[in-house]
Amino acid sequence: MNYYGYEEAADALYEAEREMANMPFNKENNIGSYMVNGRTQLERIMEARQLKKHMDIENDKVSYYVIADLSTWAENSPERSRLERFDSISEAVEAFQDYRGKDSQYSDDKARTTFGVSVHGIEFDVIHVRNNENVLSLDFTHSSEAKESKHFMDDLQELSDSIGIDKVRVHRDMSLEEVKNFVKQRFEHQLKQGGLDDISLYMSRFDTLYEQGKMEKLMPTTNQKHIVENVPIAEWDNPYFEVREPEQMAFSVKDKFVSIQTCTDGYDYSVFDADYKLIDGGVYDNLDISIYAALKDVLEDFGVSEQDERIPLDYEELMEKTEAVENELLKERIHAEVPETEANSIVVDFKARTGELFHGIGRQTQDDVEQTVWAYLQSKIDEYEMDVELVDVVVSGSRCRGLEREGSDLDVVVEYKGKEHEDDMFNAFNEDGLMIGGIKVDINPITEGKTGTLATYLPGVESYLAEKQAMQMASTKESIPEKSVTLTVAECGEFHNLGEYHENIASVEEAIAVWKSIPPERMNGISSIGINIHTEGTEPYEDV
User: Fold this and answer.
1) How far apart, in whole angstroms, are the C-alpha atoms of residue 235 and residue 170?
2) What is the per-residue pLDDT across 230-258, written as a single tens digit (0 to 9) for each?
3) Is 25's pLDDT higher than 50?
4) Which of 309-318, 395-404, 499-508, 523-532 has the lowest mean pLDDT?
5) Which stretch of DSSP H or E encloses residue 204?
6) pLDDT band at 74 (very low <50, low <70, confident <90, very high)
7) Is 149 exposed, middle or buried (0-12, 13-18, 19+ CB in 10 A)?
8) 337-478 sits in which CATH class?
9) Which residues pair with 531 in a beta bridge?
10) Which of 48, 94, 210, 323 is at 20 to 30 A from 400, Cα to Cα?
11) What is the C-alpha to C-alpha distance for residues 466 and 35, in angstroms, rounded to an integer?
12) Could you give the C-alpha distances from 54 to 146, 370, 399, in angstroms and in order?
């Protein structure tokens, strides 16, 4: 029987399988006729299936499925997760991610949320969530249909980009070194089980005995040599798709939060405690390794191993939480209660005046700017390991009184305690060219032993700014040219050269008297009184 299209074959397959399932077996339909009819139906089914497969290959048909928790299948759970099928990869990814978010409670190696693919009718799992990580299954590498399907390979790349793949489930045999270590551990265990108090002499002869082939009974079996492990995706030799490393990642590990992101010199990392307070941070300056390898090394420095559960977090959300905590700590430190003194009052009053006159930079207030600068200065102190304590940070210069011009820098004065020279502090604080809202920040460090404290420094700043403001106002006033107003009288208001014309008349009364003196019998035109405004330094023809 011939079919002319995919839909016709699919319909025939469904009808044939239905008829096969419902075929009665009785006296009228004895075993012989049942077998004949059954064979006919089977031929129809096989022929339809073959055409369906052919059409799948020709159309490079790929479909998808998602299982919420695959472990329920192995455990014969009464609440076995159902297999949900999708024709759209985007819908399948959405379902996977939805179930994926509920897996954080599990920290074992069981396959949980599963993403699978059907290529030309052949189905295999692609991604399993194990230990809260996306682990790639290599079942597809054993399918020629999958490897030859451009559609599937494109989907694999899309899965890597959208879902992200953390590790690869690799099946391999022990290396020679691993076999030797396996035997050595068995040998050591055997000696201890024998009741020997000191096994050091025997263990020292292990290498010789092993090379002589006298450890055959302790060698691993074929099954024991077979190793299944989850290898980080960056360490896997991957010929199938491009792994585009993320530029930033964040995790919850044990009682800590960890963030890492790419930077010019390598990878910038930070480690926070359970309350989102910064414990440590720095730059891992090695661009030759992947961000995953850098993260592994950073975690090892904090006693975190590959076996410890890592829960992925949204990087931006973690940064928002840690920055909020940092800002609160800064506020507590900057605005900590101190005994009310005249010196403290000077600083408080100066800042209050700035708060009234300061023009915000973007959305940043004076308080925001001072906190940002404080955090930056503290990072420089930590970087250079200076024995210095910040006292306070104050916005100064023209911007603190709203006197800035376009392109004016943002001046900030900072008081510190310590033995470091002001010049050295100035160089360290200004070497990076700190910018806030696109405006360059000039940082002026002062200390009591040299320039003085903020309480002694700020009154001078206030006086200077008051003088500057007065000069600006005087300059503005001087820059306005003087104007003189006089009156004119014309016998002909339209054409001043017809008849009498009088100008530079100082008062209205005088202008009216001149106007009345013109004899009314003259008919040169309509007489008029005019106003003339002359700007000093301009030509008469420019008068209004």
Assistant:
1) 11
2) 888 878 888 888 877 778 889 888 888 99
3) no
4) 523-532
5) helix 200-204
6) confident
7) buried
8) alpha beta
9) 487
10) 323
11) 110
12) 15, 70, 76
**The pair of three-digit structure tokens given for residue 360, joined into one six-digit string:** 């915000």
Residues 79-118 pLDDT 10s: 889 999 999 999 999 899 888 867 656 667 888 999 999 9
What confidence category does residue 18 fall into, taking pLDDT thresholds of 50, 70 and 90? Answer: low
Q: Where are the domains of the chain?
A: 6-58, 62-172, 175-219, 248-327, 337-478, 483-542
Angstrom distance (rounded) from CA 139 to CA 145: 12
Rounded to whole angstroms, the Cα distance separating 485 from 543 reads 10
Please tell me the predicted confidence (pLDDT) of residue 343: 65
Annotate 289-317 with b (16+ C-beta within 10 A) or e (fewer): ebbbbbbbebbeeeebeeeebbebbebee
Report the C-alpha gap between 64 and 307 in whole angstroms: 31
Q: Report pTM.
A: 0.43
- List the structure tokens of 203: 């263990």
Sheet with 528-535, side-by-side order of all strands: 501-505, 483-490, 528-535
The tokens 């022990």 sit on which residue?
Answer: 174
Q: Which residues neighbour 369 within 8 Å (Cβ) at sequence distance 6 or greater?
A: 361, 395, 410, 412, 436
Q: Tokens for 476, please give them.
A: 């503005």
What average pLDDT does the structure give for the chain?
82
What would the 3-class secondary structure string for 361-404 be? Answer: ECCECHHHHHHHHHHHHHHHHHHHCCCEEEEEEEEECHHHHCCC
φ, ψ for residue 430 (rounded to 5)? -105, 0
Cβ 503 vs Cβ 490: under 8 Å: no
Report the SS3 class of residue 235.
helix
Average pLDDT over residues 148-153: 89
